[in-house]
Amino acid sequence: MSNPRPPASELLPLLAAAFPHTFFADPKQVQPLKINIHHDLEALHQTNALVVEANPRQWRGFLRWYTRRTCYLKALARGEGRIDLTGAVVDRDIPEPIREQARQEVTRRREPRAPRTGDTGQATTARPPSAALLSCLVAAFPQTFFTEPAQVQPLKAFLYRDLLRLAKAGALPDGIDRSQLKPFLRWYTGRTSYLNALAHGLGRVDLTGAVVTATIPEAIRQRARAEVQRRRERQSAQAAMTAAVAPPLPAPKPGPIPYSLEDLYAMAVDAKLEVTLKFTTLPHARPVGPGKMVFALKTPDGQLVTAEVGNKVWNKLVKAAEEWPSWIAALTGSMGERTEKGFTLVNPGLQVFERKPKASAEATAPQAEALSAALAAANPVEVAPMSPTAEPAKLPPAPPIPSAAPSDSASRKAVLSLKNRQATS
Questions:
Q1: Are the beta carbons of 136 and 175 closer than 8 angstroms?
Q2: Positive or negative CA dihedral for 114, 120, 122, 126?
Q3: 209 Cα distance to chain centroid
Q4: Is the pLDDT reported for residue 180 higher than 60?
Q5: Half-sphere exposure of residue 180, counting CA atoms within 13 Å on the CB side?
Q6: Which three-class secondary structure state does DSSP give residue 286?
Q7: Beta carbons of 64 and 100 less than 8 angstroms apart
Q8: Distance separating alpha carbons of residues 32 and 81, to the nearest angstrom
Q9: Burial zone of 305 (CB within 10 Å; 0-12 exposed, 13-18 middle, 19+ buried)
Q10: What is the pLDDT of residues 68-86, one digit of tens each?
Q11: Among the residues of 68-95, which ranges form H helices?
Q12: Secondary structure (DSSP) of 143-187
């Protein structure tokens, strides 16, 4: 299992919050630090003036990591002044040998690394040796080692001794080097999938896949959970930092129209624009002027349409809403003046229909059976016996079946059809 102690990089956000003018998470703001700045941190720690919970050993590890980053070396190469814990510049002149050494290191890091070559002179794979050994051990011990993270189980304590015993007896398959076993186990038990298996308390297995330890101590499980959580938080922080410094993606440019709008406009023909609004609830209306009522309707896209109708038309609509349990009204007209939230309807015409419920299948089934029985009684058909070689008898044509009752939509008629057309000047 890997060391649960947090790495030096996790102290950066804490120290950046405590000393915002000295330590920076943004690489472009990094500046060289005062020499022996760890003494100042230790002095604050002794006086309980440091809010960061870390010991001097952790500070030194953090400072080694912080001053070896490429952004810090670039600041050294530029010769920017060294700053203390308050952000004040205490040393403006950085010796040229130190600046030259920083430039050389930055240049070396920018150069692409040549692939490692083996004895044959060919470039070896970039895959770690321990990871490359996994496939061999999975084939040799399929119940113990797994490539699928969801199948990984904790290993028996001191499993290395069992592998070493097999290696001495020559029982390990070809391709498994004895010297690679210990690094492989260190890599395999440090993976996040293995730590998840430890945290879930799965039993430890031996080389045959048998569970030899069913209970894992809670302290080990807790350390595994803490390490998994730390890795997740580090990945989230790295993703957030990458998203913060990454430039925004350019907006996609609309593609060219595959036709000419001017040509289409030239071929346009005259047409009449009408709007039809359907509603099943009596709207709230107000009188406007002598003999007129005005109300508003709201469309699904949020537009408000206002319409003026005569009192006679409105009274018919009210009467239909009172007498019919279910109805639908259709308001038709032309688009008029635009308003703040919609438009007005010019020359509205109103039609109201009663909505009747459709007959259920259970109610129509007896009617269909009775109709079939009546047809059979009116036109009986006798079938004569037929010899094996005789031609089949021709049946008389069946009388035409009367068409079924028209559907609800076909039988619907406008009970009320009133139009209020205003004369245009």
A1: yes
A2: negative
A3: 38
A4: yes
A5: 14
A6: strand
A7: no
A8: 7
A9: buried
A10: 889 999 998 888 889 998 8
A11: 70-78
A12: TT--SSGGG--PBPTTHHHHHHHHHHTT-SPTT--GGGHHHHHHH
C-alpha 112, offset from chain centre: 36
Structure confidence by residue, pLDDT tens digits, 105-138: 888 888 766 555 544 444 444 455 666 788 888 8
DSSP β-bridge partners for residue 234: none
Select the more confidently predicted residue: 57 or 307: 307
213-234: average pLDDT: 89
Q: What pLDDT score was predicted for residue 425? A: 40
Is the model's pLDDT at 195 over the cut of 90? yes
pTM over 0.85: no
Contact 329, 279 (CB under 8 A): yes
H-state helical runs in 345-404: 361-378
The per-residue pLDDT for 415 is 45
pLDDT exceeds cutoff 90 at 261: no
| Cα distances (angstroms) measured from residue 376 to each of 370, 379, 382, 398, 424 | 10, 5, 11, 10, 63
Taken in order of first residue, the domains within the chain and their CATH numbers are: 8-110 (1.10.1710.10), 129-243 (1.10.1710.10), 275-355 (2.40.50)
Give the three-class secondary structure for 113: coil
Residues 16/30, Cβ–Cβ less than 8 Å: no
- Under the banding of pLDDT at 50, 70 and 90, the label for residue 192 is very high
